[in-house]
């Protein structure tokens, strides 16, 4: 018979409690181990998966982070050393620790390293946008980037006029370039192109060189005030069917145009105001007649100054209606031209329209109004006309761009007793990316000349097509064909041009 004393019963209870304690510890330890992250901390810009709720905003895409509810189930919340900075918690140095959630960290070398070898354009941080591939072309010039190109082509031109046919073959060299700044504030953009021709055969037809360069300096004066200082130069040669062209000339007069301007744009809440001042200078070269003589055109040289004010109201960021008034004066170098007429003039204009911006799909503006030009010579009739002006860029789908333009101007005449005419121009261009390295182009345009003297109106039609094949990053193969026709106003002429060339770009 076994007699159990009080001390023996106490020792037996202690043994039972210790046994239960070890049994519970054996069951709890595997659960704690399952909540620990198998990924070791890494130095660098990539954050570590720590298993805390705070780290979920900086985790690697595709990784899984334990929630706070899961962690609390392990009993880690009761860590008495969570406020001790010397205790290892598995967090990244510099990152804040989430209050009450400090799981221990263990490194398991047997687990796979879950990270792609080439992350590509994936963001390195949840708050950073994906990196876009850079364009390798261009020449860095300090804080500017220059993108030049040179095209050399072999062309042919066939002209039919008044029942006669002439043809010339020529070489054309086109140089183009864009210079843009990379400043933290303000910006400067310079664009230029020039085409030089050299006849191979059919030298009786005049060569038609062209040049155009424009510069735009944008000044960020304040948060809601922007100023633009512009300047430009353009050289063209008048067409044989131009109303001011010299009949029977082998080389028509060349036109040198210089432009400059200053504009200031200011936002007053939803109201937008613009004030602009433009200067222009036109200088004409001599025309060469078929008998070899030279005819001076200096009586046509003139200088113009124009000012305009525009006021718009923002109905929405995509729709801004506006009203605009403008006035200008044209000064001719000579008081009277070769026919004895004083052609200096004063112009007035009023317009209304709307600016629209629907993002990358469609943006531009369109407006209509009235313009009136009064000449200094009382014998010259004033010219007044309804005007239409606008431009639009439309992208119906990726890789396809459509450009539309509408412009109305009043041109001065050189014919004795005639003041001038109203010219309406409509242009359109389509570019479609057929493949990554093949672009197709379509162009078209129409010009209507409305003469105030009652002469028959003249219409000019232009249509063209072209292909550009990118052989590699720096070399393109181009092919173009164009048809041009002038009807009315005493003109009946058609021109067909075609050429193929190579473009070297950088």
TrEMBL record:
Identify the Gene3D superfamilies for this entry.
Autotransporter beta-domain
Q: Which residues cross the membrane?
A: none
Q: Where is the signal peptide?
A: 1-33
Residues annotated as region Disordered? 35-148
Question: Is Phosphoprotein one of the keywords?
Answer: no
Where along the chain is composition biased (Polar residues)? 83-98
The lineage's top-level taxon is Bacteria
Keyword list, A-Z: Signal
Ranges annotated as biased composition (Low complexity) = 47-67
- Could you tell me which Pfam families the record lists for this protein? BBP2_2 (PF10082)
* InterPro entries named among the record's database cross-references: Autotransporte_beta_dom_sf (IPR036709), BBP2_2 (IPR018759)
Query: What is the protein name for this chain?
Result: Outer membrane beta-barrel protein
Originating species = Rhizobium puerariae
């Amino acid at each position: 018979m076994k007699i159990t004393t009080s001390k023996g019963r106490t020792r037996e209870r202690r043994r039972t409690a210790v046994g239960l304690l070890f049994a519970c510890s054996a069951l709890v330890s595997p659960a704690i181990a399952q909540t620990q992250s198998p990924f070791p901390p890494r130095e660098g810009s990539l954050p570590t998966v720590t298993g805390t709720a705070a780290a979920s905003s900086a985790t690697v895409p595709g990784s899984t982070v334990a929630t706070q509810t899961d962690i609390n189930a392990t009993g880690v919340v009761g860590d008495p050393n969570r406020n001790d900075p010397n205790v290892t918690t598995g967090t990244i140095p510099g990152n804040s620790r989430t209050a009450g959630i400090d799981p221990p960290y263990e490194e398991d070398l047997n687990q796979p390293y879950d990270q792609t070898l080439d992350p590509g354009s994936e963001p390195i941080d949840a708050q950073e946008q994906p990196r876009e591939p850079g364009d390798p072309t261009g020449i860095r010039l300090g804080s500017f980037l220059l993108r030049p190109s040179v095209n050399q082509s072999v062309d042919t031109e066939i002209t039919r006029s008044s029942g006669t046919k002439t043809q010339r073959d020529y070489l054309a060299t086109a140089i183009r370039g864009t210079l843009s700044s990379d400043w933290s504030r303000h910006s400067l953009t310079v664009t230029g192109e020039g085409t030089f021709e050299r006849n191979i055969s059919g030298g009786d037809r005049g060569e038609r060189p062209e040049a155009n360069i424009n510069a735009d300096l944008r000044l960020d004066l304040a948060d809601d005030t922007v100023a633009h200082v512009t300047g430009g130069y353009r050289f063209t040669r008048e067409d044989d069917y131009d109303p001011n062209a010299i009949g029977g000339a082998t080389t028509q007069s060349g036109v040198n145009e210089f432009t400059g301007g200053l504009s200031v744009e200011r936002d007053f809440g939803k109201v937008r105001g613009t004030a602009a001042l433009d200067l222009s200078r036109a200088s004409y070269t001599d025309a060469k007649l078929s008998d070899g003589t030279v005819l001076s055109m200096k009586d046509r040289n003139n200088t113009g100054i124009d000012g305009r004010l525009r006021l718009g109201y923002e109905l929405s960021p995509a729709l801004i209606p506006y009203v605009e008034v403008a006035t200008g004066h044209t000064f001719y170098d000579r008081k009277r031209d070769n026919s004895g007429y004083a052609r200096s003039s004063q112009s007035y204009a009023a317009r209304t329209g709307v600016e629209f911006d629907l993002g990358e799909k469609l943006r531009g503006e369109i407006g209509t109004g009235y313009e009136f030009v009064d000449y200094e010579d009382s014998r010259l009739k004033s010219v007044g006309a309804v005007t239409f002006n606008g431009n639009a860029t439309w992208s119906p789908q990726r890789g396809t761009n459509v450009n539309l333009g509408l412009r109305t101007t009043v041109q001065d005449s050189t014919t004795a007793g005639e003041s001038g005419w109203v010219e309406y121009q409509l242009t359109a261009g389509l570019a479609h990316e057929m493949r990554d390295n093949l672009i197709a182009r379509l162009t078209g345009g129409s010009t209507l000349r409305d003469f105030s003297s009652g002469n028959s109106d003249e219409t000019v039609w232009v249509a063209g097509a072209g292909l550009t094949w990118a052989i590699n990053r720096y070399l393109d193969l181009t092919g173009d064909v164009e048809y041009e026709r002038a009807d009315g106003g005493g003109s009946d002429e058609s021109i067909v041009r075609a050429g193929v060339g190579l473009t070297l770009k950088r």
